[in-house]
Amino acid sequence: MNQILSPERVRADVAELLDCDPAGIAPEENLVDLGLDSVRIMVLVDRWRTAGAAALEFADLAEQPELGHWTELLTGGAA
């Protein structure tokens, strides 16, 4: 979807909203189970749209709330 966002940026943005160490998030972990709610997901959508992922929608993230999926979706690379 976007080559401006890097896997490191995606991980760091998620970790910031979860208030945790980026290295502590496994790619397959459910981010909702870790505390990421719909409001925070919308914050990420807005942040990543601003960074160039203009076509990103809330449902793209909410349907599969895993770091690995989001990283693949946004960067084409692995988390």
Provide structural commentary.
- The chain has 79 residues and is mainly α.
- 49% of the residues lie in helices and 0% in strands.
- It is built from 4 helices and no strands.
- It has helices at 7-18, 38-50, 58-62, 67-75.
- Helix 1 (7-18) crosses helix 4 (67-75).
- It is globular and about 25 Å long.
- The protein starts with 6 loop residues before the first helix and ends with a helix.
Quick structural overview:
The chain has about 80 residues and is an all-alpha fold.
For the structure shown, list the relevant keywords:
79 residues, mainly alpha
SSE order, as H and E? HHHH
Helix tally equals: 4
| Low-confidence regions | none
Mean pLDDT: 93
- Overall spatial form: globular
Relative helix content: 40-55%
Structural class: mainly alpha
What's the β-strand tally?
A: 0
User: How is the biggest beta sheet arranged?
Assistant: none
Rg is: 11 Å
Span between termini: 15 Å
List the helices and strands and how they pair.
Layout: H1 7-18, H2 38-50, H3 58-62, H4 67-75
